[in-house]
Specification:
The protein has 252 residues and is mostly helical. It is built from nine helices and three strands. The structure holds zinc ion.
Length: 252
């Protein structure tokens, strides 16, 4: 992206005072177009007509903000017949087409160098040892602190709810799962714990969470259905998945 410069003295510059606000609207709009199209200050007549009226263009020329073909400003190049040139385009702090192109190429080259540095390097041919294995070693898992936005997976919630059912504990509501998760993250952070994955520890917390009181009527609880003749893993699993889906839907 490039920018069209409007300097901090422009508001009261005599040339601005001489032009109408409507004409200045045309000046800014075409200025933005010129900066985007990298025309180095040239405004095609077609673009002037697209963004403003002939009277506005005349006002800009009369104020000296634009030049028409045949102008006598010694500082500015001549536009083609029917086009305009923005007076002092380069001297007003606008970057030239050449400067912007060079900067973009530099930054593209910089990004490529950065990507190349990031890419894993193969050892030089002489240093390659063939130990018989074709597969490279998988990267070692990295133990890291828990992220503040960590969330249990559907499977974690499912497993915890099933275990609670087996232990005769009520299932956790969506709010209770949020609250267990918040407490869990805080504790792991406070203790400075590092882990590769957090699901297993969270399940233990969720399985053992003692809920203070039975959920209020109408709260977001998914009961573990008791099938005729006692609960089955299948009905508990279904209930747990239903809750997980509900949590997911709430997040979205
Ligand atoms: Zn000029």
């Amino acid at each position: 992206m490039s920018y069209f410069a409007v300097d901090d003295g422009a508001h009261s510059h005599p040339k601005f005072m001489a032009a109408t606000n409507a004409a200045l609207g045309l000046w800014v709009r075409t200025g933005s177009w010129v900066a985007q199209q990298l025309t180095d200050g040239h405004v095609p007549g077609t673009v002037a007509k697209l963004y403003g009226t002939p009277a506005q263009a005349r006002s800009l020329v009369a104020a000296g903000l634009w030049h028409a073909a045949g102008h006598e400003c010694p500082r500015c190049p001549q536009p083609r017949n029917g086009d305009y040139y923005m007076h002092d385009y380069a001297a007003s702090g606008n970057k030239s087409r050449a400067e912007i192109k060079a900067r973009r190429e530099q930054s593209a080259a910089g990004s490529k160098r950065h990507r190349d540095r990031q890419a894993p390097k193969a050892p030089p041919p002489g240093e390659q040892l063939d130990l018989g294995g074709d597969e490279p070693d998988p990267p070692a898992p990295v133990r890291a602190p828990i992220r503040p936005d960590w969330q249990p997976t559907r499977e974690d919630i499912h497993a915890a709810q099933v275990a609670r059912g087996d232990a005769g504990l009520p299932p956790l509501t969506a709010d209770q799962i949020d609250s267990v998760t918040t407490k869990f993250i805080r504790r792991q952070t406070d203790d400075g714990r590092l882990a590769v994955a957090w699901g297993g520890r969270w399940r233990e917390w969720a399985e053992n969470e003692r809920t203070a009181s039975p959920p209020a009527p109408g709260s977001n609880v998914v009961p573990l259905a008791r099938a005729a003749g006692g609960s089955t893993a299948d009905t508990r699993a279904a209930a747990a998945f239903q809750l997980a889906a509900q949590l997911e839907a709430e997040e979205n």
